[in-house]
Amino acid sequence: MESILRNCIEANRLSMQEAARLVGVDKSQIVKICQKNYPNWQEKETEYVERLKQAGYKNSIPQHIAIDTDVLVLTPSVSRFQSLADDLSAPDGTMSSSIGMAIGTAERGKTHSAKWYVQNNPNASYVLFVDGSTKVQLLRDICDAVAHTRPYSFGGCLTTLEESCKYTRRLIIIDEADKLPIGHLEMLRGINERCQLPILLVGEEGLKTKTDRVPRLRSRIRNPIVLFDRAQAVDVAAYYREAAHIDITMETATRLVQHAQGGFRSIVNDSIAIAKMSKASSLDTITDNMLEKLSA
User: Fold this and answer.
1) Dihedrals phi, psi of 175, to nearest 5 degrees
2) What DSSP assignment string belongs to 284-296?
3) How many angstroms separate the Cα of 207 from the Cα of each of 74, 105, 114?
4) Considering only CA atoms, which of 127, 287, 147 is closest in space to residue 202?
5) Nearest CA-CA partner of 67 in 224, 288, 272, 205
6) Which residues neighbour 172 within 8 Å (Cβ) at sequence distance 6 or greater?
7) What angle do CA 172, 177, 181 make, to 5 degrees?
8) Measuring CA to CA, which residue among 147, 148, 128 is closest to residue 138?
9) What is the pLDDT of residue 63?
């Protein structure tokens, strides 16, 4: 949600310094309140907007669409992903078949879901596998994510992970895992068993094909495997409701999902473009003209 005080300042084309002078406080205080980083900022915001109004400035909020791209829409795919991650990280859960898998083509929202889960679960960590990384480099990345340290040797990494997982159930989510060589996947299977560290592999569909070829890996993959489907019109409508606090028609949602070809990342990028067009035209609804410009 945008700052009411910032909107008031911008609507009246004031600088932060000018607003501070009119209100009678330091510029730094105005900036912190606009950033919602000041004690009792809500009360101060209301008070200072009223002072500006008394000084003859309008208390109008620019009409436009504002997008919060950090929201997570609980589509069926996302809900299944969260359930799998919760199941793997449950302190009293079984370690049998404790390697999970979430797959789907690019732009389906896998990475966004993984990062959101880690941000909201202190015992979960995220690692992006970089193609070409050695086993030790991958282990060091995992140690950094789990224990905030990067041991130099393979043995040092093992010791660190064993100690970190001895008393607390942790979950490591490895993104772009479809790029992992079989040898790396075999190593992760061993880490999973030795360190009692649940692992959630996230990647494109080729990941399942790769693990299916190795019985020792296949037998340790927990069911059900999560498949990230194409976004649907109802998901797009939910996204705009959560991210922009506006309701869009199913016709508009259908046009948006068709333009994005069901890709979540494209849906988000389109919403950012729409927000810019909205601000430029001072409109708080999605118009046909905006949709046509997206396709231009």
Assistant:
1) -90, 155
2) SS--HHHHHHHH-
3) 24, 11, 16
4) 127
5) 272
6) 124, 125, 126, 127, 142, 145, 146, 197, 198, 199, 200
7) 120
8) 128
9) 63
Q: Torsion over CA of 13, 17, 23 and 27, rounded to 10 degrees?
A: 130
Confirm if 50 and 41 have CB atoms less than 8 A apart. Answer: no
**Among all chains, which residue has been given the structure tokens 């080729």?**
206
8-state DSSP, 230: P
d(CA 72, CA 238): 10
Summarised one tens digit per residue, pLDDT across range 40-81 is 888 888 889 888 888 888 765 556 778 888 888 889 999 999
| pTM (predicted TM-score) | 0.76
Q: What is the spatial distance between Cα 121 and Cα 114, in angstroms, rounded to a whole number?
A: 11
The CA-based angle 7-38-47, given to 5 degrees, is 55
